[in-house]
Amino acid sequence: MPSLRDMRARIQSVKNTQQITRAMKMVSAAKLRRAQEQIVSMRPYAQRLLQIISDVALTQRMEHPLFMNNNEAVSKKALFIVMTSDRGLCGGFNSSVCRFTENFINENRSKYEKMDFIFIGKKGADYFRRRKVQAKRVMLNLAREISYVMAEDLAQTCMTEFSTGDYDEVKLIYNEFKSVISQKLTVEKLLPIDLSKGALADAGDVKFPFSKDLIFEPSPREIIDELLVQHFAMQVYRGLSESVAAEHAARMTAMENATKNAKEMISKMTLVYNKVRQASITKELIEICSGAEAVNSV
Amino acid sequence: MFLLTLVTPQKKLLTDVEIEEVIVPAYLGQLNILPGHAPLMTTLRAGQLKVRLKGESTFKSAAISWGYCEVNPKGINVLADTAEWPEEIDKKRAEDQIKIVNERLQKAGLSPDDYTLSQMKLQKEMARLETLE
To answer: Are A131 and A110 in contact (CB under 8 A)?
Structure first.
């Protein structure tokens, strides 16, 4: 049986931990709200961009190396962007991404000639460094805010290497922000851009017929080149934003659980503490009584 | 009915707002777009976007940097990398940035890419100051 003083110290320490987890939960909640706002405010831009691209692609019957080639060639050289967070204490957020990626590497090693990785976030980078997976590039310290500039830069790198033929596929592995309580691990193909896919098809239902004799300044080719770069950067940015939101959501849930557990633990320990305290009082009383008894009976 | 949408990746400034006319810094120069303009698709330079909202007689301006503009029979979509109303512009910061970029441009041995980037940056900051005036 631990002494009363030890128990008091333990209860106090759990209480302190609870205070910390509760504070972290609040912080995550605030950050989550900001991240969610960011996602929402990004949507109109992404939608309009898609709409314009599909308008131009449809009216101009564009062929572009970045579009999906229909002859479903199996890709041989793939680049993966793995998105994790810089900090831990967010439940299964990082471990699910890491584990998935690791399994994926082991399973598909034979299928690809070349697999390269870009790790974003400290947790993923550390995990794979320990497992001796070569990283092509590591991006850290994005804790505060991921900026569009950063996404653009990353996108530019991928784009260049994709177009020079270093890779024929670029995929993003990240946690999609479904809701506050659920994050879904998602693997998204970023390049080549799949024009037939839902998103573009949805944006394509233009209410007003698009005029064939659209004026282009400069040429359609140049415009679509730039638009696609922009679109790709946007996709990367969206993935990153989703991941950030998911991270905060995951941390919030994890911290809420921790706070709840701490509360439970405190109440259990307080119960034991009181029992022990009462037992010792009773014991003392009995000792006094029996002592008095012994004196009287003499 | 002539609608203007002005959005950036980070925020939306205007969505489907009715306007009388708009002046954008287009690829080949200032472009004044009035209702009934032919369908057009153009890239935008860094500069000042001026818009006259429905029923108003004065122009409201915003500083934008690089983007796209699409004119269709219904309205105009402007997708800019950044866009700011005058009240959002930090004058001191813009001036400081101009100083820094100018110094960089005067240095020798700048790679062509860096040179273009610096030029773009300079234009962007100039556009900000211009919008403030």
So the answer is: no
